[in-house]
Design goal:
Elements (H helix, E strand, L loop, with lengths): L2 E6 L8 H4 L18 E13 L2 E5 L2 H7 L4 H12 L8 E6 L26 H4 L2 H9 L6 E6 L22 H21 L3 E4 L18 H19 L4 E8 L5 H6 L2 H6 L2 E5 L3 H10 L4 E6 L9 H16 L4 E6 L1 E3 L14 E4 L4 E4 L1 H10 L7 E6 L6 E4 L5 E7 L5 E7 L2 E7 L3 E6 L1
Parallel strand pairs: 2-17, 3-10, 4-5, 5-6, 6-7, 7-8, 8-9, 11-12
Antiparallel strand pairs: 1-19, 2-14, 12-13, 14-15, 15-16, 16-19, 17-18
């Protein structure tokens, strides 16, 4: 082993394993012929699963505004902490089409009612906000790729004439063609500006109506919109960007299963994106649809407290989604201001918090976790088999042939670890309250 990197939870955080580790019940379980106090991991580098596309987080207009409230030197340092190879080095990130719930207010890229030809389509607002954030990131990242989804179509394309409070895309073929054109124009305008979007999803969380930008797009609407309008328009206008299904929540429905069960829809999409899901449901989809690519699109938002307990849960969440077959993992807000609040009033976590009055920023515990992963979960890496009874683990083989194993010791005492690979055995000790990357 050439390197062990460790994120240590401060002692005052007072974590208990059962608060964090979904396998905490297995600690100390007597296994015949084995020491129950030792974590045993067996690696099989030749048993390779999905090829990874990288990890990162979500851009937001509020985050961009906070960064540009900083003095230039502080802003540069914060951007480096997220995107430079010396920082987290993120390679795959998320951006909204128009307003997300962390925009400064609700807006679209064509707010002119009846403009079916999109003559007034414009990303001018984005150039001074979220796109400026993206382009600054792209100048630091090795090869930044973006996946995108709208939170809502322009209000005039919806049956409630509003970007907020849900509503649905109007059942009018001409308007649906106009909306597909709107989305293609978005991909093209961003590409021409220097931001490469290679995955586009038709709707964020299509099952819920909320007081922030949202749109209910049930399978009866998503299937014909994608098959008849979006997929053909994107293939003709921006063929380097693929349609992906989603971004689905799977906490309360089976929309992904219903959409992907439709043959023409399955043929029209390159993959499917999920957030707030049960990883087992994603595994089930892979059984039903062999070869389906899947990705994670949004981490749990939490409440703005940015605690170490939440960071430890984030670590376990990344393990779960990648072990379920996802080729990437997307944190939610990368940057927020000191309030942590959206325009619609609630607080959420962030990787970096900007103090606008002081002109400073700080990394939060989640940043340490995402940085730990980002060095190895890079485009072209492959997940490999890692067998462990006591707790979830994740192992990857990087494009350079190196291997990384991610595991944790959420308990308060050092934990013996045995790693077996190719007939060789290494014995190590995991520090208490630690999340660890072991690299060979």
């Amino acid at each position: 082993m050439s390197d062990m990197e460790c994120v240590r939870v401060p002692q005052e955080a007072d974590l208990h394993p059962e608060q964090v580790d979904p396998m905490a019940w297995a600690a100390g379980v007597d296994q015949p012929g084995q020491d129950p106090g030792t974590i045993r991991v067996q690696l099989f580098p030749d048993m390779a699963y999905q090829r990874l596309a990288g990890i990162g987080g979500a851009f937001s207009e509020i985050g961009a505004a906070a960064l540009w409230d900083l003095p230039a030197a502080e802003r540069e340092a914060a951007l480096d902490a997220l995107f430079a190879p010396s920082g987290a080095g993120f390679t795959r990130c998320r951006t909204p089409v128009g307003a997300s719930d962390f925009a400064l207010d609700a807006y679209s890229l064509c707010d002119h009612p009846g403009d079916r030809d999109m003559e007034h389509f414009s990303i001018a607002r984005d150039h001074s906000g979220i796109l400026r954030f993206i382009l600054a990131a792209a100048r630091r990242a090795r090869d930044l790729r973006l996946h995108a989804s709208p939170w809502s179509p322009p209000a005039w394309l919806k049956d409630n004439d509003s970007m907020v409070d849900g509503g649905s895309l109007r059942d009018d073929p001409g308007l649906r063609r106009a909306y597909a054109d709107y989305l293609v124009r978005f991909v093209r305008a961003y590409r021409q500006a220097g931001a490469q979007i290679d995955r586009l999803m038709p709707q964020n969380e299509p099952d819920i109506a909320t007081r922030y930008p949202s749109c209910v797009m049930l399978p009866r609407d998503m299937i014909p919109f994608v098959v008849e309008h979006l997929a053909p328009a994107l293939a003709a206008g921006e063929p380097d960007c693929a349609v992906w299904a989603g971004a689905f929540r799977m906490v309360g429905g089976a929309q992904a299963h219903e959409c992907l069960h439709h043959d023409a829809f399955r043929d029209a999409v390159a993959g499917a994106g999920f957030q707030y899901s049960r990883p087992q449901s994603i595994r089930d989809l892979a059984v039903l649809h062999p070869g389906l690519q899947v990705m994670h699109t949004e981490s749990v938002c939490y409440d703005g407290s940015n605690s170490w307990l939440q960071a430890a849960r984030l670590f376990e969440d990344v393990l779960a989604y990648l072990r379920a077959g996802c080729d990437s993992y997307s944190y939610w807000n990368m940057v927020l201001d000191e309030t942590g609040r959206s325009h619609w009033g609630w607080r959420q976590n962030a990787l970096i918090t900007v103090d606008r009055a002081a002109g400073t920023w700080r990394p939060n515990p989640d940043h340490a976790v995402m940085r730990l992963f980002a060095a190895d979960l890079i485009p072209g890496a492959r997940r490999i088999e890692a067998f462990c009874f006591q707790r979830p683990c994740l192992a990857v083989r990087r494009p350079d042939g190196g291997i990384a194993l991610f595991t944790a010791n959420h308990g308060g005492e050092p934990a013996p670890l045995v790693v077996i690979c190719g007939g060789n055995e290494q014995r190590l000790e995991l520090p208490p309250h630690s999340m660890v990357a072991l690299r060979w």
